[in-house]
Write a structure and sequence with these properties.
Elements lengths: L3 E13 L5 E9 L2 E7 L1 H4 L3 E8 L7 H7 L7 E8 L11 E2 L9 E7 L5 E2 L1 H5 L36 E2 L4 E13 L4 E5 L9 E6 L5
Antiparallel strand pairs: 1-2, 1-12, 2-11, 3-4, 3-6, 4-5, 7-10, 7-12, 8-9, 10-11
Length: about 210
């Protein structure tokens, strides 16, 4: 079964192992999440649950979403996402899920939105070396030739060029849970997670770890 929670990145700190090694960890606020809807294969074509996270003022919710969320009796939510599950009957609408869904030692995937860095050149965006800075060189930070002449008379898709950098959905896989504080809905994971402080994240059990 796929386990998942919605939350936000609170920042980074470090903890110490018993042998004295300092381990960088990211602090995630995981929940509380509430079950908004259960989807079944008979009715919807697949089994899943829809979770809500982060409260929102009623005046900022559209009427269709308001009617959808009223079924939970838990208020209105800023974020809603679905998680596939083999047994949606285990959940009830309005049920609260928290950080205790995961335990120390679990492997998880965390999805976030990377920091937006605006329009960037090839050196910052792709790590190009650029040209020399001395002896009258006229080539410094430009991308240079991209080889598109009469044939093929176009730029190939995927060519590394200047453009929007960051602000994209990114997944970090196989992070290890090193601490869980259910009373505070806090999960500590070893390593870095994409996004800025207070950025929205999706936490799932690792799909490539067995």
């Amino acid at each position: 079964m796929e386990k998942g929670l919605l939350g936000k990145k609170l920042g980074m700190t470090q903890i110490f192992w018993d042998d004295g090694d300092a381990i960088p960890v990211t602090v995630l606020e995981a929940g509380p999440c509430f079950v908004i809807q259960k989807k079944t294969k008979e009715k919807d074509g697949y089994d899943a649950i829809q979770l809500g996270f982060g409260h929102k003022k009623e005046k900022n919710v559209t009427k269709p979403l308001k009617g959808h969320m009223d079924k939970t009796g838990k208020g209105y939510f800023r974020y809603m996402r679905e998680f596939r599950t083999a047994s949606p009957e285990q959940y009830e609408v309005g049920q609260e899920l928290g950080a205790d869904l995961f335990a120390v030692g679990d492997r998880i995937d965390v999805i976030g939105t990377t920091k937006g860095r605006g329009f960037a050149g090839v050196i910052k965006r792709h790590g190009f070396h650029g040209g020399r800075a001395t002896h009258g060189s006229m080539f410094h930070r430009a991308p240079g030739s991209i080889g598109a002449s009469a044939d093929p008379s176009r730029v190939f898709k995927g060519t590394r060029l200047p453009g929007q950098m960051g602000n994209k959905r990114h997944t970090v896989q196989n992070l290890i849970v090193v601490g869980v504080k259910p009373d505070q809905n806090i999960i500590l994971v070893r390593g870095a997670v994409p996004g800025a402080k207070n950025g929205f994240v999706i936490i799932k059990n690792a799909v490539k770890y067995s």
